[in-house]
Amino acid sequence: MTFLDKIFERFQRAGSTALLREIRDGQFVSVTGAELLTLVNQGRAFLRRSGLKTGDRCAIVAPNSIQWVALDLAMMAEGIIVVPLYARQSAAELSGMVRDSAPAAIFCSDQALGEEIQRRCGANPVIVPIQSVFVGEASTAEAPYPHAASDPVTIIYTSGTSGEPKGVVINAGNVNHILGCTNDRLDRLMEGHKEPEQVFHYTPFCFAASWIATLSFLSRNSVLTLSTDLTKLPDELKLAAPNYFLNVPTLLERVRAKVTESIQGRGGVTAKIFSHAQKGFLESRHGSGERIDRICLSLAKTVIFPKVRKSIGPNLKALICGSAPLAIETQLFFMMLGIPVLQVYGLTETTAICTMDVPNDFEPGFVGQAIPGVEMRIAENGEIVVRGPNIFAGYWGRPAETAKALEGGWFHTGDQGEVNARGSWRVTGRLKNILVLNSGHKVAPEPVEQALAAEIPQAQHVVLLGNQRSYLTLLVTAPQTDKLPSTQVQAAIDAVNSSLPHYKQIRAFHISTELLSIENGMLTANGKLKRDAIAARFATEIEPLYQKQSA
After folding, report:
1. How high is the pLDDT of residue 436?
2. Three state DSSP letters for 369-400
3. Which CATH topology does 249-314+318-431 take?
4. From CA 265, how far away is CA 203, in angstroms rounded?
5. Of 274, 347, 468, 529, which one is least surrounded by beta carbons within 10 A?
6. What pLDDT, on a 0 to 100 scale, did the predictor assign at position 162?
7. Is the backbone of residue 289 left (phi > 0), alpha (psi -120 to 50) or beta?
8. Is residue 304 a contact partner of residue 274, using CB atoms and an 8 Å limit?
9. Burial zone of 334 (CB within 10 Å; 0-12 exposed, 13-18 middle, 19+ buried)
10. Phi and psi at residue 167, to the nearest 5°
């Protein structure tokens, strides 16, 4: 059975039971397994009436929704290659991906955005409002297209941190293997749980990890709740009360900062107990600690932590985190509260996953061991290379770049890392992000940025600078500089500098209220820094940092 066969079988078994829902205005809008199958079959009938056929490419540009899920499944069931695109990206960026993938049609939730893409790309492709797909007759129920392992099912575009986004072709064999691995991990996490699993999902479907997670959830005995308003995530989480959900580090770091700020803001005994408990938890990991810290940790586990857990999610068995490095301090913080954070590492080209933490047997600060069937090693230049059934078929229309990425039969991730005796991996940075100082010293910016971000919770981003310069400087973005005094930034830099060799120490900084965003081109679609773009945009602010020090 292919992954689609398993998902559709799950829908049939669910029958009149709700298995997918959106949160709209504080209420659930749900569909049962039977209703979702009907939507899929309506989508298949529409695609056929439109003359679309097996092997065609079709794009979806829309936020997460029940209709998005149904259309994605309908396309794959017809053998159509899905090109998911991020609705928050600019029309200019989206148009580049459309020209590259040349879809026969774009299914769009925003008519104005669709028309702008079409204006930039010419008369073709056809723009189709998503809602128009689900108004006609449904096709008769039939098995999905019988994908061979090598058949492409989707083209997902990379984030483009260091250049133009590339279309990653993922085939049915990739997905079949990865879903087997994800479901095995989730089975271990939910062992002994008899009721349908409650799952919350807010990350956009157009990202590989989010798409794989969604297919995993749909194939399980679960009720999947979709967020529809990121500004209301805390309220939506309380309503959904999930057992687990996929996260990006940014959200977890915000939750940690908010919890800490809230407790410290109360002052008094509660704040003192919490502070001692944190110290006691960290010390207990090394078999040490003062008596007062141990007592406060025991007291916090009884009085404080249960209330915090309830405010985050009363039914949480674990948080799953991927897409970017997670600070070990944040992972340990949630562990202290009694909420495990399970990490996943992978790239779009690895069908989102190379490693996954094993529930009840993971090491904080590491991203888990290689999943079954996948080999990983460190090349001579320190780069992580991977091979296995998760590796993509190639970049769409880019044979030379595909050959380079797969040189020697291994996929070259571009990530630096290390592996311990247990086979657990740690990712230490991106090769392309390395800052090379005039002295010849090389600095991976990510570990330093993580340490600084932990010291400056009010900052939106901290960006290390200094490529081809004589020393490092720092750009800090924050919505309100009056709430982030320069003395605090300097204190954070001093604290971090104290543990770094001289060439990694930061000599100057600039605070800006201009935030980095997807819309202004400073962040990729999945929130990663576009370092070259940032350096160019803030060149005027950065240059004086070097003139002052050298004067």
Report:
1. 86
2. EECCCCEEEECCCCEEEEECCCCCCEECCCHH
3. Rossmann fold (3.40.50)
4. 31
5. 468
6. 57
7. left
8. yes
9. buried
10. -80, 115
Helix (H) or strand (E) holding 189: helix 172-189
Distance of alpha carbon 291 from alpha carbon 479, whole angstroms: 41
How is 465-476 classified by DSSP, letter by letter? E-TTSSSEEEEE
Helix (H) or strand (E) holding 320: strand 319-321
- Asked if domains 3-243 and 434-550 share a fold, the reply is no
- For the entire predicted model, the pTM comes to 0.88
Distance of alpha carbon 16 from alpha carbon 19, whole angstroms? 9
Grouped pLDDT means (10 residues each) for the chain, 551 residues: 95 96 95 97 96 97 97 98 93 92 96 91 88 87 93 91 83 98 97 95 95 98 94 92 93 90 91 94 85 94 95 95 87 96 96 96 95 96 96 97 96 94 92 86 88 89 92 92 85 93 93 90 83 91 80 44
pLDDT confidence of residue 144:
95
* C-alpha distances out from residue 328 to 252, 282, 447, Å: 11, 11, 11
Topology classification of domain 3-243: Rossmann fold (3.40.50)
CA distance 53 to 340: 45
Nearest CA to 31 among 134, 107, 130, 111? 134
Alpha helices in 20-84 (DSSP H): 33-49, 66-77
CATH of domain 434-550: 3.30.300.30
Pick left, alpha or beta for residue 351 (phi over 0 → left; psi -120 to 50 → alpha; otherwise beta). left
* Rounded (10°) angle between helices 33-49 and 3-14: 130
How far apart CA 334 and CA 362 sit, in angstroms, is 14
- The confidence score (pLDDT) of residue 325 equals 80
* Domain spans in the chain, listed from the N-terminal domain onward: 3-243, 249-314+318-431, 434-550
CA dist., res. 43 & res. 134, Å (int) = 6
Distance CA 157, CA 348 (A): 8
Q: Assign residue 394 a region (left: φ > 0; alpha: ψ between -120 and 50; beta: otherwise).
A: left
Query: What does the pLDDT read at residue 428?
Result: 87
Would you state the structure tokens that stand for residue 438, as one six-digit string?
């005039």
Q: Is 228 left (phi over 0), alpha (psi -120 to 50) or beta?
A: alpha
How many residues comprise the chain?
A: 551
